[in-house]
Amino acid sequence: MFVLDTLLIGSLRFVLDKVVAAAEAEMQDDSALRQRLLEAQMEHELGEITDDEFAAIERDVLARMRELKGGESHGAISMSKGVTVDVEER
Amino acid sequence: MSRNGKRPKAVTFLFFGGKGGVGKTTCAAARAVAEARRRARVLVVSTDPAHSLGDALAVRLSARVTRLPVPVAFDALELDAPRAFARWIANHGEAVADIIANGTWLDRRDIDALLGLSLPGVDELVGLLEIMALAGRDPLYDFVIVDAAPTGHLLRLLAAPDAVAAIAAVFDALQEDHRIMRREFGRLGRPEAADRLIELLVDQAARTRALLRDRRRTTFEWVMLPEELSLEETKDGIAALRRNRFHVGGVIVNRVLPAGPPCPICDRRRVEESRVVARVRRTFADLPVRLVPEQLHEPRGIRSLGAVARLVAGKEAALRRQTSLRRRPSASAAYADAGSLPARRQRSAPETLEALRGARVLFFVGKGGVGKTTTAAATALRLARRDPARRVLLLSTDPAPSLADVFAVSIGDRATTIRGGPNNLRVRELDARAVLKARRAGLESALAELGATLGARESSAEQLLDLAPPGIDELFALLTVTELMAPPNDEGEPPEYDLLVVDAAPTGHTLRLLEMPAAAREWVQLLMRVQLKYRAIARPGRFAQEIVELSQSIRRLQALFHDPDATRFVVVTRAAKVPQLETDRLFDRLRALGLAAPIVVVNARTLAPGRCPRCRLSAAAERRILAAVERRCGRRRCAIIQTPLVAPPPRGPTMLERWASRWIA
Lengths: 90, 665
Description:
- The complex is a heterodimer.
- In chain A, strands 1-2 form a two-stranded antiparallel sheet.
- Chain A has helices at 2-28, 31-45, 51-71, and strands at residues 76-80, 83-86.
- By secondary structure, chain A is mainly α.
- Chain A has one domain (2-74).
- Chain A contains three helices and two strands.
- The longest helix of chain A is centred in the first third of the chain and has 27 residues, at 2-28.
- By secondary structure, chain B is α/β, with parallel strands linked by helices.
- Among the domains of chain B are: 12-85 and 120-323, P-loop containing nucleotide triphosphate hydrolases (Rossmann fold), CATH 3.40.50; 353-431 and 566-660, P-loop containing nucleotide triphosphate hydrolases (Rossmann fold, 3-Layer(aba) Sandwich), CATH 3.40.50.300.
- Helices cover 52% and strands 13% of the residues of chain B.
- An eight-stranded mixed β-sheet of chain B has the order 3-4-2-5-1-6-7-8, with helices on both faces.
- In chain B, helix 10 links the parallel strand 7 and strand 8 (289-293).
- In chain B, helix 3 (81-103) runs antiparallel to helix 4 and helix 16 (432-454) crosses helix 20.
- The longest helix of chain B has 27 residues, at 507-533.
- The radius of gyration of chain B is 26 Å and the shape is globular.
């Protein structure tokens, strides 16, 4: 029974670990945001979006990047009662 | 070699090289006349993008062969490089599109857009191939005489076979995957058009390379003026040709002043010239040195060229007698004062300053040899001296720069002060190749990424950079102007310099350089579109970053150049017919490009002819041309600056400044 519990919790923990890491990566890695900005720059250079539209995208992207930076300091994310997963700081 | 007798088997190619304005065109045309008189079948071709062959022959020429009238019937044409390239694309565009389609993920629409763009520099390579292809199995001509572009660009043109070989290698790499696939599926059969094109290019490159270096078939005649500056340039040019194993046939010293009655200007010129000629003979003891005396009237048209013809084609020994130049002028004439100038030159001074005031970029343009470097250097020195708080950079963009020769010091690609010059003046000879080299690492990884984006093999990116398409390096070099004068952060730091004085390459190539930002912008935009289109497959990264920055940089440069308050083009000319014709065309082209040219410098005017018949004749001819310049300038509302002819031409900061003080108050 103990073995089964351990196995169950162990695999649950493993899955949760992966999910959290992926979510964390998505949020912490700003490469998607940088890419969005780069695409907007290209569209702007091509005249496909106006100065104002570009400025709006730039503001949005920068704000989200700042958010990301602010979020980094939390260090751990709580998934549910009793189960706490530690996430290493990058 | 006769028309009636046996047909010779081979064509002889004669290239006339030298710095702009030394009389390459005149000598090439005169040689054509000489060979045609010997009943050889002759074609004379101009490859300079700013043609003056028609002006010299006084015939309207085009990209089609024009037969000149008997008794000296020969053919002439002015090569239209962009059209030659268009012809090439018409013949081979399909195959090129196949290669790109086979080697990348680009679709047909992208490829067609790509092939529709102009490729600065590549058109000239095609032009050279067309000329050299005249050495076919049943040649139409005994002599193909090439009036080549000024030195810097001639040397690049002669590297055409290597560029073609590099293009073939890139195509080959792109085609390789496709070949593997065809082998896999067992559909080998006939070679495709694409493979045939690659083979053709490899073959053409090898044949042209060999032909250009075959001393029995191809000879370079070097044309120069009997001036110190010209000799320095000749040494560099001939050394560069020989380094590349081209055969130099001889040196022509053009416009040597013949003996005449005493005259303060002419006598000083003669002293200087005989010294230079003696040095030429010593320096090139292994080469025939031919002297062509200055003609009383500008040699235009077949008849006046006939007088020069004997001299450029004759035996050296005979020439020495004919020109009777060996007589040494009296020593007392050397380095006398240049003589007083009439009061009218004073009048131009305030006007000069007004036209120059407030500019951030002064771009000196004009036909080769009119004195761009000298006037640009003198202007930069004078303006820096007048205003010590102003940081001035004198920058040469000519691939064959002569700033160092004018200042009589060595100058390189790093901005340096000139000993004896003002402290706030820096001088730099821009080395386009070095600029590209410095950016190479960044460009290489960006290009490799582009290759990956488009599905090309890795090696093609590197090969593409090895090829360093002519013109691309010059574009990057020009963009350094933006970095110097219009830094990216508009509010932030001030530009490195307050005033930039540009000493540009001769007209033809400077115009191309000025057209380049627009052409490059089209390229960059196409690349951005491709990048956005395939963003799902290949995420924009390093390459996208590079092209965005390039696009922004080009836009800033265009804004700077098109602001008439900031950038002024100073058109330098001489009061003679051929430079005048080119100046007119230059004005039109600048206006078509939307660039402001509010200043004309009529350089080296014979302002105090005294009693010397030759000087008086020159002065009278100059006045007629000047009147025409004034009429046109009146309409265009541009200021005219006249600079006095001094002998020897000003060299070194002290002489330059003294000279400039006579025309810039």
